[in-house]
Amino acid sequence: MIQRPKYIDFLEEWKNKQIIKVVTGIRRCGKSTVFALFREKLLSDGVQPEQIISLNFEDVENESLCDYKALYSYVMSKMQPDRMNYIILDEIQHVDQYEKAVDSLFIKSNADVYITGSNAYFMSGELATLLSGRYVELKMLPLSFKEYVSAFGTQVTHEELYRNYVYNSSFPYTVSLNSHRNIQIYLDGLYNTVVLNDIVERKKVSDPAMLKSVIKFMFDNIGNTCSTKEIADAMTSNGRKISNHTVENYLDGITDSLLMYRVGRYDIKGKENLQLLEKYYLSDVGLRYYLLGTGRADQGHVLENVVYLELLRRDMKIYIGKVGSAEVDFATQDYEGNTEYYQVALTVRDPKTLERELEPLDSITDHNPKYLLTMDNDPPISHNGIKQKYVLDWLLEDQ
Predict the structure, then answer these.
(1) Is 251:219 a contact under the CB 8 Å cutoff?
(2) Which of 267, 250, 132, 264 is nearest to 198 (CA)?
(3) What is the pLDDT of residues 291-344, one digit of tens each?
(4) Are strands 272-282 and 317-323 parallel, antiparallel or unpaired?
(5) Does the pTM of the predicted model rise above 0.70?
């Protein structure tokens, strides 16, 4: 199993605290594996096996527990009365009214509760209301580039590993597959499961073919500003009429399923959020190659997508930065309110390209850190305070 230290550290930090640990992430991003690693850590720390109650609700063996009363009764029957119990409920969205069971277990003094789900909306509505202030959320993603590199020996260069990372996918299971064909078959099953189970079923989509056309359009436009009208117009021009309202409903489903992330724009000078022209990024760029092939690959936007996901892993709030008529790829803020700016480019060895990429950063008048990340494997350099870094080194930095 590939080690996921960031996520294990989170679970360790919140272990035994009177708060529910909620882990969200797209299907097959490694949530179950992280809890297998966490279970090993608990056992190595002296926790007895009978103190760990772990249930995966995608396993048909647990189908009889997909009712909150049955689940609550079962867990209570397994709990050790005089010791802490570690209750891990994986893919709990399959349990009807699960929030009632979770809340009832949470109030037990000897219950340490962990739940996972494969979409954003499982933590909306009643559960978020019922458990308001009682949970912390860990948002999981597929493998980071650093985690991906750790799965291979030193015989392969970082450049080659990066090509494999974006082309073959960052989903953990793909690392064990020995051919691109098998990876494509795996991604086909994953993609269709997300589309059918997490979008079509949830959003009651009556035209799955149209939904797939919208998804294909979005995959082809990662890193580009997209409005619902532009998407609707693009579908109409291809002979498929669709309303703006339906497009918005599809986009909500796509982002709720954690297949893609919506990123708003921020006026850096005016210090205000902007409502128009958002951008979208994929949870895994390998899915883009799976769906669109390699012929239409825009390596610059693919790299931008990889950087966006890494900033997300580093617990940043992320916006598209607007500076007058110019745009900075990412304006970020951490939990302590520290701001950083990032511009991403494949190469800036051409002087005109370098000038163009630096211009938006140069126009920002505050003194927060500014970075230019590129695939140019050159020594770090500073351009009037803007730090240019080789992006693969940046992706492999310790955090």
Answers:
(1) no
(2) 250
(3) 999 876 789 999 999 999 999 999 999 999 888 888 999 999 999 999 999 999
(4) unpaired
(5) yes
